[in-house]
Design a protein that fits this description.
Elements: H1 10-19, H2 26-36, E1 41-44, H3 51-62, E2 75-78, H4 82-95, E3 103-106, H5 112-121, E4 125-128, H6 130-138, E5 149-152, H7 155-160, H8 164-172, E6 179-184, H9 189-198, E7 203-206, E8 217-223, H10 229-239, E9 245-248, H11 252-264, E10 269-272, H12 278-289, E11 295-298, E12 313-316, H13 323-330, E13 340-346, H14 351-361, E14 367-368, H15 381-393, H16 404-407, H17 419-422, H18 425-433, H19 452-461, H20 465-479, H21 508-514
Parallel strand pairs: 1-6, 1-7, 2-4, 2-5, 3-4, 5-6, 8-13, 8-14, 9-11, 9-12, 10-11, 12-13
Helix pairs in contact: 2-3, 3-4, 13-14
Length: 515
């Protein structure tokens, strides 16, 4: 089937041709006709199958007629992250370039002023994250009672990030008569219940098993010791034909550490995680798309929906905690029918997570060996639990230990100097110069201790210092008999003026006789 057979408008088809596309993907082929008919749609497809175009293309055709009013957008698209919202905005700019539709992007990390100005002019398409949309709604800068098309994208990610209460609040502000489009890469029971609550007689479109990786992605796993993971990653980066790659870590702190480690070994690497300011995040992502940065070390903020054309590799430096996150991570490569490669670095403590991934994707990830590194084995659950508890007790983060080649250069324990010789010179000198305590007197020569009764009687007989001080202060005040007359030299000026009495009033009878 061709795009021209789906019922899209001529201007939209012209924009698609300019992009070089002729045939729709399965999710686009099934969803677009139902969206154009005004039906609610529940779409579920694996990542990288073109879900974004399946609702942006028909929305442009639907909104081509009509005009938006100030602060009352005609359509609303909710995205879980700022990067996804910006990517959807780019899609509207690409496919709607032959239309005069206005668009606003409401995301955090940017000033309210420019966003409010766009809303005041009226927008046809509003793309927002839940938090910023609620902020502007509470400020009175936006009204949602004119929404014709409402889209919830990456619904499973919304659930993971805790946005469901915000979405329920936003839905309560929308008009009852609207078209709702609900898209998700996975369909857990919680998402199914939300879809039943938000959608009205929806048309369900499912083109692939939930949480299944693309067949165009070649997967592999290297099982190494934790301290060897950086060396294994560098080996893969040098031996693989890496054009550009995402390198995923589980913690934001490890993202910065790994990025600096790669730069120190001569790799062109950048970092992307949720704690970065929005301007820096967008700048880094844009530099990666332009090829100015080859390797992007990132957290799971980049695991959902980000589309980088021609991404050749994905490396999981850490095995993801959730098995579904593994599918989304490796889904950044092998998109739009292209081939991609995904490598995962697992440690002996990751056996439980790897087993969960295998059960989800219905296959085992092939194991590979790294030249020059010792292969490891997964520990049992009890051993892994004890290993993690020891790591937490020592307050060490995984991946923060020095590489094995650096630790090998440290002196062995038996070659180290004794503890007293390793103390600083000043400390040893101070310890040597410390005076020896005087010898205590024998117990029989010591003065006997005073009894409690005698000590209490002695304290009662002695005058208290505070009481004597107060008594002396009062005595000194009584002896100060110097007379004080008036204000002295500090007489106020108004008291030196002469007082004039007003003239007495004349009797009323006398004044009348004179008249």
């Amino acid at each position: 089937m061709l795009f021209s057979e789906l019922g899209l408008g001529p201007d939209v088809l012209r924009a698609i041709e300019d992009k070089g596309y002729t045939q729709p993907t399965p999710i686009q082929e099934q969803a677009i006709p139902w969206v154009l008919q005004g039906r609610d749609v529940l779409g579920c497809a694996q990542t990288g199958t073109g879900k974004t175009a399946s609702f942006t293309l028909p929305m442009i055709s639907i909104l081509a007629s009509g005009r938006a009013r100030a602060r009352m957008p005609r359509s609303l698209i909710l995205e879980p992250t700022r990067e996804l919202a910006a990517q959807v905005a780019e899609s509207f700019e690409t496919y709607g370039k032959h239309h005069k539709l206005s668009m606003a992007l409401l995301i955090g990390g940017e000033t309210f002023t420019e966003q409010v100005k766009r809303l005041d002019r009226g927008v046809d398409v509003l793309i927002a994250t839940p938090g910023r949309l609620i902020d502007l709604f509470e400020r009175g800068n936006i009204m949602l009672n004119d929404i014709k098309v409402f889209v919830i994208d990456e619904a499973d990610r919304m659930l993971d990030m805790g946005f469901i209460p915000d979405i329920e609040r936003i839905v309560s502000k929308l008009p009852k008569l609207r078209q709702t489009l609900f898209f998700s890469a996975t369909m857990p029971p919680e998402i199914r219940r939300l879809a039943d609550a938000f959608l009205s007689n929806p048309k369900e479109v499912t083109v692939a098993p939930p949480a299944s990786p693309s067949e165009t992605v070649t997967q592999a796993m290297a099982l190494v010791h934790e301290e060897d993971k950086r060396k294994a990653l560098r080996h893969l980066l040098r031996t693989e034909d890496v054009k550009n790659a995402f390198i995923f870590c589980n913690r934001k702190r490890d993202v910065a550490i790994l990025q600096k480690s790669l730069e120190s070994h001569g790799f062109n690497a950048g970092a992307l995680h949720g704690d970065m300011v929005q301007s820096k995040r967008m700048e880094t992502l844009e530099a990666f798309k332009k090829g100015e940065i080859t390797l992007l070390v990132c957290s799971d903020v980049a695991a959902r929906g980000l589309d980088v054309q021609g991404l050749s590799h994905v490396f999981n430096f850490d095995v993801p905690v959730s098995a579904e996150d593994y599918v989304h991570r490796i889904g950044r490569t092998g998109r739009a029918g292209r081939s991609g490669r995904a490598f995962t670095l697992a440690s002996p403590l990751d056996g439980k997570q790897v087993s969960a991934i295998g059960r989800l994707i219905k296959r085992e990830i092939p194991l590979i060996a790294i030249d020059g590194l010792e292969s490891a084995e997964f520990l049992s659950e009890d051993e892994a639990r004890r290993g993690r508890s020891r790591g937490r007790g020592k307050d060490k983060e995984r991946g923060d230990r020095a590489p094995r080649e650096q630790r090998a250069e440290r002196p062995d324990r038996e070659d180290r100097a004794p503890r007293e010789d390793r103390a600083p010179r000043e400390e040893r000198q101070a310890r040597e110069e410390r005076p020896v305590r005087e010898e205590r007197q024998p117990r029989e020569e010591r003065q006997p201790r005073e009894s409690l009764a005698a000590a209490e009687a002695r304290r009662q007989q002695e005058p208290r210092r505070d009481r004597d001080r107060d008594r002396r202060r009062r005595r000194d005040e009584d002896e100060d008999d110097a007379p004080v007359i008036g204000f002295g030299d500090h007489m106020p000026a108004f008291m030196l003026r002469s007082a004039r009495r007003p003239a007495p009033a004349e009797p009323a009878e006398q004044s009348s006789q004179e008249g």
